[in-house]
């Protein structure tokens, strides 16, 4: 890649290897070298951190997340999760690894079957991955687990027999977070998780995500167009342009002094951004060690 490659992997993880390691990832669509959605991306994501992925529409963010989730096969390069190269895993091993990475999408309603009750929506991953969660005898145990998951995201365990349309956007996003947590993942890919919500609701969902991260030690890859949100939630930010990573760094530093012209251009396009409003970035900027609490 370009000279930017050297610093895209970030600081060494004190706990050892990063949770997620992307090396020289490339994705061409249609077998054409001219249609390159992801181009030579190398990046580490460390256990417990929030890495924000930003860039304009069409720069390759979705393709990159699908590659790192093992949902798309790279044209070149590798994805390792928990120290294991996904390309070397058997189908059963890959299923086991995929359980540890879950996704929360922008519009929870589109990913929910409106005719399914909340209990079945949240239990879906359990029932799909765990044969013991199926069948009449397992029902009480599954309902119990769904109740715990709903409470973990600030909802009442008693809503299980209701339907998605009975809930607000913020409540539906909490339901989709509960579903994402069902299999005890280590990493969540959050794809614009709050951009469909009102600002006040957005804040409560971001607080919930921060709280869950702290309690469960989760790692987040947070895809967002909203730089104010990125400033608030992300430890590091990775900036993509035309399939390439052009800048990766600590959020406060990238917001304060973007090094790449594209990053500056991206930030200039958001005149309302005030990095001082980002709690995490601000805490970092004012801390002598540069560390902020999560
Ligand atoms: N299945 C596909 N077949 C062909 N081209 C594709 C396919 N998926 C994505 N692309 C192309 O790859 C490039 C990157 O698309 P991608 O959806 O990853 O960008 P993005 O940054 O996620 O955009 P957005 O923010 O709008 O979702 C685009 O030029 C897109 O047209």
Q: DSSP helix count?
A: 10
Number of strands: 10
Name the helix and strand elements from N-terminus to C-terminus, one letter apiece.
EEEHEEHEHHHEHEHEEHHH
Spatial order of the strands forming the largest sheet: 6-7-8-3-9-10
Residue-averaged pLDDT: 85
- Largest beta-sheet characterization: 6 strands, mixed
Low-pLDDT ranges? 1-7, 10-15, 272-294
Cα gyration radius (Å): 19 Å
Bound molecules: adenosine-5'-triphosphate
Q: Considering DSSP H and I runs of 4 or more, what fraction of the residues is helical? A: 25-40%
N→C terminal distance: 32 Å
Strand percentage lies at 15-25%
SS content category: alpha/beta
The shape is globular
Pfam family, one: ABC_tran
InterPro entries: AAA+_ATPase, ABC_transp_ATP-bind, ABC_transporter-like_ATP-bd, ABC_transporter-like_CS, Oligopep_ABC_C, P-loop_NTPase
GO molecular function: ATP binding
Organism: Streptomyces tendae
What can you tell me about this protein's structure?
It holds the Pfam family oligo_HPY. This is ABC transporter ATP-binding protein. The chain is of the alpha/beta class. It has a domain at 111-184. Helix content is 35%, strand content 20%. The strands form 2 sheets. It has a 6-stranded mixed β-sheet, sandwiched between helices. A 4-stranded antiparallel β-sheet has the order 2-1-4-5, covered by helices on one side. The protein is globular. The two termini are 32 Å apart. 39% of the residues are buried. The structure holds adenosine-5'-triphosphate (ATP).
